[in-house]
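Blinded run. Sample ID left blank on purpose so nobody reads anything into the name before looking at the predicted structure. Input follows.
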Amino acid sequence: MYILGISCFYHDAAAALVKDGAIVAAAQEERFTRKKHDPGFPTNAVAYCLSAAGISANDLAYVAFYDKPLVKFERIIETYLGTAPVGISSFLMALPLWLKEKLWMPSLIRNSIGTDVPILFTEHHESHAASAFYPSPYQNAAFLTMDGVGEWATTSYGVGEGNRLTLMGELHFPHSLGLLYSAFTYFAGFKVNSAEYKVMGLAPYGEPKYVQTIYDHLIDLKEDGSFRMNMDYFDYCAGLRMTNSKFGALFGGPEREGESTLTQREMDLARSLQEVTEEIMLRQARHVHKETGMKNLVLAGGVALNCVGNGRVLREGPFEKIWIQPAAGDAGGALGAALFTWHTYLGKERFVSPDGTDSQHGSYLGPSYSDTEIEHFLHMNEIVFRKVDPADLATSVADLIAQENVIGWFQGRMEFGPRALGARSIIGDARSTKMQSIMNLKIKFRESFRPFAPSVLEEHVSSYFQIDRESPYMLLVAPVVEHRKIATTNEQDQLFGIDKLNVPRSDIPAVTHIDYSARIQTVNRRTNPLYYDLITAFYNKTGCPVIINTSFNVRGEPIVCRPEEAYKCLMRTEMDYLVMGNYIIAKRDQTQLTNDVDWRKEFQLD
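Blinded prediction complete.
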């Protein structure tokens, strides 16, 4: 039995396909349309999922949609009526899309996929909970979902046991940790529903000087992690902005204009918000543990992408183990809806692997390209390449990394979720003191303050980081172990803001943030043997089992999906090599692209 899950019309549209309860394929629409966070109907993602299974839409038993549009529309109507006439302009902007598409979802889905199939609608936070629990390695676990808003719920918790989910409590709109974080993202001059992770990365550069201000004026936080927000300072219920003039007055002036120079205020706001967020997450985790009595916790929803908070929940919280859905945001709702249909609606049994592994397959659920397809692309475009024996590939690329080259790594099935996990990655030498700035400014064309993540052999993770378990999905932050840290001098301690960036913090400086932390991806042979072999070859050559891993894209674009996008990324940047399948493409051997985007000019970089 095939069940297709769909999420769309807010952000990060996606499709996922489940066969008899097993995950077959999943992908975000943005990877195909090249429109970052594409919210539109996931036509291309659906087509990919069906193709991956070798079926047509007529073979589907059900299509599951990740929320209930009519209930969400009810919330929008009630919200606008409660704020009228203030919210009339934003309401009039939203109404046409609802009347044209969102209220007619069953017919839209059937027309888009081309068949008359039963369609089910799960609640938004049910989809998140299902995406967190059902693929997890636990027979029983508490679940906690946190995001902006679904229909009404913004946070929910409960218990997963066997194949059943039981909801025990919710927080409702407008009181939302996700929307609080988005409000500060907006105020700091970043894009909402897109750049919240930038605020998290910026936080270590600031001081928590506004924490008490947030508690005194913006949020009434209870001991159990529940809270109420003071809506006098926010405009997202009625207006087209997240915050209003009272919010600006509270923090010393209006919001930062996008792309303008970051000031210490934004850094201090980011740090203060992050500390409040972590405190809320910890209190909620303690409350959920107390109410459920479970030893294991699973997380989903956009807030579960806050890997700093996740790390603290793991280290300081009461749960013995936690598992986080890799596609924790709305994209993962497509997968959750499909799994919810199989296990909850149809009552089908759930099988948990006895070896403690999850059923997410490393989140390598997207398209892949064979050597035949890659070589055809290379020949058709007259691209100079070198083919390497598969047995020699890992050693050859490890040698290039050790020479401080930057490598585009394009292998196997594309990742599902926002993190590159060694299938569509840009990789480099974590020991290099210059690699972070090179990658940020010459490859990614992005803000210099943003850190890079380490990929580390799973069996060596505790030798470098203060964590004693796997972190395969890059969703946990942990400190570097003490003996690898490099103490700063008094002069370095006096540096201000972004000036702290270039001070080495450890013997793997390219992946150590200024607070001595790192967002870790552990790599094992089971889920990604080639990537494991590459890092092992680098370890054998250098004695270091850690490399840099960042997503294979430039700023403003989704992660690459196809060979042509990978090649364009090579040619538009100062990357040194592209490795696709068993083919190594050296940038220096190529003819420059003509009549193409000047990336450096577009992003106003020297």
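Unblinding after everyone has recorded impressions. The chain has 21 helices and 21 strands.
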